[in-house]
Amino acid sequence: MGNIFKLEKEAEDCKARAGILYINGTEIPTPIFMPVGTYGTVKAMLHSSLIEIGYKLILGNTYHLYLRPGLEIIEHFQGLHNFMNWKYSILTDSGGFQVFSLQSFRKLTEEGVEFVSHLDGSKHFFTPESVVQYQRVLGSDIMMVLDDCVEYPAEYGRVLEALERTLIWAKRSIQKFKETEPLWGREQYIFGIIQGGTYPELRLKAVEEMLKFDFDGYAIGGLSVGEPEETMYEMTNICTERLPADKPRYLMGVGTPQNLLECIERGVDMFDCVLPTRNGRNGQIFTTRGKINIRNAKYKFSKEPIDPGLDNEISKNFTLGYLRHLFNTDEILGLTLATYQNLAFYKWLVSTAREKILSGLFRYWKNNLILNFVDE
Amino acid sequence: MGNIFKLEKEAEDCKARAGILYINGTEIPTPIFMPVGTYGTVKAMLHSSLIEIGYKLILGNTYHLYLRPGLEIIEHFQGLHNFMNWKYSILTDSGGFQVFSLQSFRKLTEEGVEFVSHLDGSKHFFTPESVVQYQRVLGSDIMMVLDDCVEYPAEYGRVLEALERTLIWAKRSIQKFKETEPLWGREQYIFGIIQGGTYPELRLKAVEEMLKFDFDGYAIGGLSVGEPEETMYEMTNICTERLPADKPRYLMGVGTPQNLLECIERGVDMFDCVLPTRNGRNGQIFTTRGKINIRNAKYKFSKEPIDPGLDNEISKNFTLGYLRHLFNTDEILGLTLATYQNLAFYKWLVSTAREKILSGLFRYWKNNLILNFVDE
What we know:
2 copies of one chain form a homodimer.
Chain A: E1 5-10, E2 17-23, E3 26-30, E4 32-34, H1 47-53, E5 57-61, H2 62-76, H3 80-84, E6 89-93, H4 96-102, E7 106-108, E8 113-116, E9 123-126, H5 128-138, E10 142-144, H6 156-179, E11 189-194, H7 200-210, E12 217-220, H8 229-242, E13 249-251, H9 257-265, E14 270-272, H10 275-281, E15 284-287, E16 290-293, H11 313-317, H12 320-328, H13 332-358, H14 362-369
Parallel strand pairs in A: 4-14, 5-6, 6-10, 10-11, 11-12, 12-13, 13-14
Antiparallel strand pairs in A: 1-2, 2-3, 7-8, 8-9, 15-16
Helix pairs in contact in A: 2-5, 5-6, 6-7, 7-8, 9-13, 10-13, 12-13, 13-14
């Protein structure tokens, strides 16, 4: 495993970091947000629009791709990049979260996890080893280990059990990773996942144990599952406090603009979340001046650009009035423009955070911006 | 009214024509196909994608825009171009066809047509004059007169009555057009519509009478409503035989690739149809090698580009296998790629027809290409 991360600067008044990820010839400045492309497409977006906004690292879901189109097809196409015609980087999750959240039935054993497909009820069995192998087939640039996710709230005993299982599985994952090679001529990297629920001592134990394996990066998992935001921030802080400076830190499944800013402040480098895409499709627009519910009748006559604070043709040149009309008539372009705006905003958010970290003004900027996103 | 059309060449062995439409500073080579943008958006397409393909003239529906967002809003935005942020040309239909095809209730009088909205059952009344005024508000580059469309089959008496009404309405339309001015600083042009059903003598009468008004162009209406294709071709031929060479000819609501080729051969310059967009969203893909039903399981493993015969990034670089997967998972990108391909194909079809007309090879090319589109 190589070193894929270079730390450029850490803020003096907080733990915010600016860095660069080097992945298969692509440089990805951090902090970074990764749009979610569940089935090999970021919903409602052309690939060229993602590139236009500046996204060079997107997420794919192993669980979903395993079910549809199925790995046989992805293998036939020699990996997910070829299958979906995406030239830049892809991170795939392990399926651990989906098995935890989408299944009515799942059975955990030491060996792995048995579950039924949410699509057709068919039975499947994932092991740490099989999930590494699936991600070899997918050929993602960054793969994640299979973990045991716990619901919130959960008893200490259940969280401890899940953590221990996750640690054993991490060891088996990295073993399998070392025994296998990339299939499609693209280097692959592997991240470990820190579990431990909302118990500080378990998070500490998780970090300590995971650091024994030399992962290419470390993810913080099992958060944003219903716990209070302050708890999420506290757990994140406990992890980043102990994670090594020279490895990227990825907070999984987070979150709102506020969440991103708070966790960048606490030393996180990478984020993914369905929020900007899913909420965009529901008419919630994130802009540099705050959140907008585009279905609101008050935008009927609005000639205001979607977001005059962003420098792209869509945010600048389409109006709120037109976007509302598109939602009102159930036009697909409405979903596309809203998603475009939200992803452009998230890109602006992390890119500006990076600039401000480099210029030493991150906290000042963050504390001001966050006022636009206080829930009314 | 100015002369917006220049005839460049007419084929020697048929009536196919190559020309140029000059509309508000935009040159539009003919034959041309106009994508349908019912509610101020061509469904599932970014405007930038339309421009990328080469479309500079799209269609809007007066009836639909009148109902949603409503003309009050379009007026507030100073016309449809501004409202939808479209810089090139727009043709709007008159609503005659929608009133005819979408209404459970309509009441024709000499004065106009009363109908109930297909959305909420509210009552509305269109007159030839009001429809011109609506299109002044829309600010379309080309407006159409209100006509009385007849179902197929229809008795001679009913078709004659509708034709006579259409002629009287045409006179009133052009009167109103002359009495009014564009509202938004963009020149507007007006086309008459030739009715007459499937009765040759009524079509002849319609052309003769319509030519008494000096319209900027002439549309052939009331076809593609269920009559046999041969009848449509015959009626088209009767009209183009008598229409003046120096005015553009627009066959409304047509059609399949075969229909376009056959009617270009018969001297038509302009077409519009929902077929490439609607059928695209249903998984029917038009390509230079023929039609494809992308849901067919045989494309599961297909690494073939969507259309290697077209020179754009989407047709060349995305595979049939990926497109099928997108339809299989109900992904919006599937609708977008299919629509993009179909519109790129239609653009290729009319552009290539034009080239072949100019080089004298139209009929030879057409007779070969059409074999790809024979229904199995």
